[in-house]
Specification:
The chain has 19 helices and eight strands. The chain has helices at residues 2-22, 30-49, 57-72, 126-137, 199-202, 207-224, 227-235, 237-240, 245-266, 271-290, 294-304, 307-310, 313-316, 321-333, 337-348, 358-371, 382-398, 414-422, 430-440, and strands at residues 80-81, 103-109, 115-121, 143-148, 154-156, 173-178, 375-376, 379-380. A hairpin with a 5-residue loop joins strand 2 and strand 3 (115-121). It is globular and about 85 Å long.
Length: 445
């Protein structure tokens, strides 16, 4: 009897942990909700005969009740998101995680650069996107969906692909066309990015304020990422038919900040101003590190180490030695040797809350997944699952304490700074940036 009782209690404990990990995502899974309700009824029946099970029943009842109430709550119903994945009233509200049932209004372009706006679920497959476009155009004969980067790289999406809206590059766009028009597709002029820098705007903002507002925004994005999105991303979104929108947007933010640094420097024609920009970005990086925002910290440092910036020898040689020393220290943290040991040792000393360098966590999970079989002799490879879980636990640990930056640090012009860091306009075409860099400082003969 004791053996059977212990097994039952272990099963209840496992289900409670599973429900805690899934959290709000359970509302989107009808099978999981049905299982949980049936499981609760079974445990309730057993608890009438086995008193030892009663102590676990209240927690199980609380979870089932909470999920049922949340599912009925109108505020938890699906949202309609705009092209940039904001709700129209987001300024007044705390950012909410994007769910697969949320809908997005999105522009899909044609060969002649006209567009049609479709409204589909965020987790829609390419097949569903084609159907929505066909309804608007009145014909869907032989349509394909293509994502085009600012540099003109074209990728035809497969019918079963999902999360197509959030996996675009920073300036990427979606196109729909018959297959025979594929070779004629060209990027939109707007994809090229800005032609004038914003140094005149953000040089008036303090570096600390910029880092502060960047960290607040990054935390909002990071806090919306569900640990399961890392699993979907690693094992293949199409295998789960679930969205990774929150993770995709957080990863895109890293690229956006990186290209922001390169864009501003390459759009600055005055050598003295470029030196000031280098100093500014190094200061912002230092404050991001101080705020334990390692994602933006590394994005800025990687932007400064981009070849379009690092080759500007005449600019770098005018940088004061104090700033060169800071930058050298920052670069040393990016050293990939010994599996990014320098970074890992630094993070190990930090207490939560902190914003981790997400691309490295993704790399860890991908390496574990591709280097180990999921099944061995038709049995689940639990060692692999433990390694995957350890990375997911890192994300949970980083958010295990509430993020409360001192609001007093916000300057009187914090609204201007807030708006600026949330609407960065960048050039994400490396070829264009390199050409601009060579115009600023031509290669020496």
């Amino acid at each position: 009897m004791d053996y059977a009782l212990n097994n039952k209690r272990r099963v209840v404990r496992l289900v409670l942990q599973w429900a805690a990990v899934y959290g709000d995502l359970l509302q989107e899974d009808e099978v999981a909700m049905a299982f949980l309700e049936e499981f609760y009824v079974s445990v309730s029946d057993d608890a009438r005969m086995i008193a030892a099970l009663k102590e676990q029943l209240p927690e199980l009842e609380r979870i089932v009740k909470q999920i049922s109430e949340d599912a009925k709550n109108p505020q938890k119903k699906h949202k309609v998101l705009l092209q940039h994945f904001n709700t129209s009233d987001e300024r007044a509200q705390k950012r909410q995680p994007i769910r697969g049932s949320d809908e997005v209004l999105f522009k899909v372009y044609c060969m002649d650069h006209t567009y049609t706006t479709i409204r589909v679920p965020v987790a829609a497959s390419v097949r569903e996107v084609i159907s929505a476009v066909a309804d608007k155009l009145g014909s869907g004969e032989g349509l394909i969906i293509v994502k085009i980067s600012s540099g003109g790289e074209k990728v035809v999406l497969k019918p079963n692909d999902v999360s197509v809206f959030t996996t675009l590059t920073v300036n990427g766009r979606l196109f729909a066309c018959p297959r025979e028009q594929f070779d004629s597709l060209t990027p939109l002029p707007e994809q090229e990015g800005p032609t004038v820098g914003t140094v005149g705007t953000f040089e008036l903002m303090s570096s600390k304020d910029l880092a502060y507002q960047m960290t607040i925004y990054d935390w909002e994005l990071f806090n919306c990422v569900h640990e399961l999105e890392l699993i979907y991303h690693t094992f293949g979104r199409h295998n789960f038919k679930k969205t990774t929108a929150n993770l995709d947007l957080f990863l895109r933010r890293f690229n956006e900040i990186q290209f922001w640094v390169v864009t501003e420097i390459c759009l600055c024609s005055q050598p003295s101003k470029r030196v000031q920009l280098l100093k500014k970005f190094i200061k912002i990086a230092a404050h991001c590190k101080e705020y334990k925002n390692l994602n933006s910290f590394f994005a800025i440092v990687m932007g400064l180490s981009n070849v379009a910036v690092s080759r500007l020898a005449l600019t770098w040689e005018k940088l004061p030695s104090k700033f060169k020393k800071f930058y050298a220290e920052f670069e040393s943290l990016m050293d990939p040797s010994r599996n990014h040991r320098a970074y890992r040792l630094t993070v190990a000393k930090l207490e939560p809350p902190l914003i981790p360098f997400m691309p490295l966590l993704i790399k860890d999970m991908t390496f574990t997944h591709e280097g180990n079989k999921t099944f061995i002799d038709n049995l689940v490879n639990f060692e692999k699952m433990r390694m995957i879980a350890n990375t997911a636990r890192t994300v949970r640990y980083c958010r295990s304490q509430p993020f409360n930056l001192d609001a007093a640090q916000a300057n009187k012009n914090h609204q201007d700074v807030r708006s600026y860091v949330r609407q960065l306009n960048v050039i994400d075409n490396q070829r264009t940036l390199s050409q601009m860099s060579h115009r600023l400082e031509p290669r020496r003969p």
